[in-house]
Request: fold
Amino acid sequence: MAKITRKPVPRKAAVPKKKAKAAVTKPKPAKKSAPAKKSLKATRPWTPAEIHEVFSRFRKANPEPKGELEHVNPFTLLVAVVLSAQATDAGVNKATRALFEVADTPQKMLDLGEERLREYIKTIGLYRTKAKNVIALSAKVLSDFGGEVPRTRAEIESLPGAGRKTANVVLNMAFGEHTMAVDTHVFRVGNRTGLAPGKTPLDVELGLEKVIPPEFMLHAHHWLILHGRYTCLARKPRCEVCLINDLCRWPEKTV
Reply:
């Protein structure tokens, strides 16, 4: 039988692979950054004459400003300020009107007791903790200070529930000291206007004490509190009716 010879099938020539194109990284468009807010520290500093003018205007508009926390003596003022932490003055007044009719001294407050005190102040935030502090500070005022509210910052700060702001309010309103109590309103006004920029309430307090003339210091913190509460509002400041809008350094003022 004849042997069949198969012809070899020619292989296809290998096609050289195309080199992959190097990936071209397109530069990402730069993100538009929000326009930087103008720093108050970069603005023109207040001059002593301008600061004198600011407080002269406040004094002319309201010669004898009063704190809005109702009280009948230094002790009830101390209690009202302690209760006002993270609460409104109006809310505190609503609760303390009846309270101070029955407990306007440290001894009467102790006699009232923590449980009954809670019933009077239960509409105020953190009332349980505040009731405990008020009873404790009443006991300390009796035991350490003969039943009288102390007259130094360190002594007032030693009382349960009382901090630096509490001490400054009591020293100013009860004893006529030239102190600067910095609450949220004063902190905002000090920073926003550029009168005393600061990262902490203490920074603002010391800054204001440094620049405000002594003749205005007795009422200065009341003027600033009222200005922040009714004019220089947190969200929508009423620049159009502001007494000092021509002097204010706030870059975003609307006049």
Summary: The chain has a mean pLDDT of 88. The chain has eleven helices and no strands.
